Amino acid sequence: MTNSLDGIVTVNVANTPNNDFDIFGRNEDVGTVEEDINIVGGTIILPSSAFVLSIVSSSIEDSGTGGINPEGTGIREVIITGVDANKNFQEVDLILDGTTAVTTTETWLRINRIVAKTLSVGSNLTAVGNIDGSLNGNIQSRIAIGTNETEQTNHTIPLDRFEKMTRFFLNSFGGKLVTARLLFKRIDDIFWYNLRTLQLMDEHLIIDIEKNIQAAVDVKWVSLVDVAGGTITAGFDFQFIGSKRSISILGPQKRMPF
Q1: Cα distances (angstroms) measured from residue 15 to each of 20, 200, 241, 243
Q2: Nearest Cα to 117, choosing from 77, 57, 72, 67?
Q3: Distance between CA atoms of 67 and 73, rounded to whole angstroms?
Q4: Whole-angstrom Cα distance, residue 150 to residue 200?
Q5: SS3 content of the chain, % helix, strand, coil (to 5)
Q6: Where are the domains of the chain?
Q7: pTM for this model (two decimals)
Q8: Between the chain's N and C termini, which has fewer beta carbons within 10 Å?
Q9: Residue pLDDT, tens place only, 54-86
Q10: Which fold has domain 8-44+154-254?
């Protein structure tokens, strides 16, 4: 099979608004075999087709109106952002039902972030249990106990958006030698491409980078350590340049998605 990366476009951004946002991921138990920097741990199994998203908590306290515990002390409602069946940006609100799984009406190819909806949390202000979002039975994202949003470097640029990576960062703890790789691929591809490989030990690393990323591309950090049990945080700073409706397409096509 071929795994071509032809098709990036040049974008005129002179009259479009710039909105910065960051992607942050954490893995508290990295082993000697490479895995995603995602609070879920291991390697996230990405779907090849779209499925409804199922969300469930390990606590009945993460429940909202109409749920098992309508006045739960944890997170009651979440906002989900990601990529729909047509690879376009999608955002959906969903009321949780504690330890009973709830599903979206919409289908998803990718989940980029799940975050507690403002004013839809109880007295605890954060998740009481681990809140997992799954596609086709495979966990994609988790709001961990004591937090209010997912922590994952797995991110997908939707087909109908243009985003620029402006910075990436990597932190290691615990005296372990970390080898980390910044990977990317098209949504429909199987194989990941390596953009950058770094090694560090107990360091905080920030690198400025200006990369226009093609739409419908998956990006993530992966890592391994020399002795199992390392804690690593990592992420990216992105700039949302605009949607296809607000940006003119110019110039010749190029081969790479950056």
Answers
A1: 16, 40, 10, 12
A2: 77
A3: 13
A4: 25
A5: 0, 55, 45
A6: 8-44+154-254, 51-143
A7: 0.86
A8: N
A9: 999 999 999 998 877 888 999 999 999 999 999
A10: Jelly Rolls (2.60.120)
